[in-house]
Amino acid sequence: MAWLMVGDRVVASLEVASSRRDRRRGLLGRDGIEGALLLERTRSVHSFGMRFPIDVAHCDSDMQVLRVTTMRANRVGRPVRRAASVIEAEAGSFRRWGIAPGVELEIRR
Q: What is the CATH number of domain 2-108?
């Protein structure tokens, strides 16, 4: 299992979707998630078929947050040019965890 870190603080458990199939599935078909999901090699996401609203953080290759949005179901997110990965969590999680543009995240595996 991996952990999502902000500074020296663990903020959430982290699932990692690194294969094309896992990235395509994402959070579809779930009623929620404890923690967060990292979509590697991803610049944009959609929320078609989602059962709950999500927070989305686009991160660069150094895991610095470029943009944070909240998406309701059945929406298409805009690609972020310099994004190398995306982190998804239930809506409201990022505010509680202190994740905002400019914050540098760390993944501990």
A: 2.60.120.1140
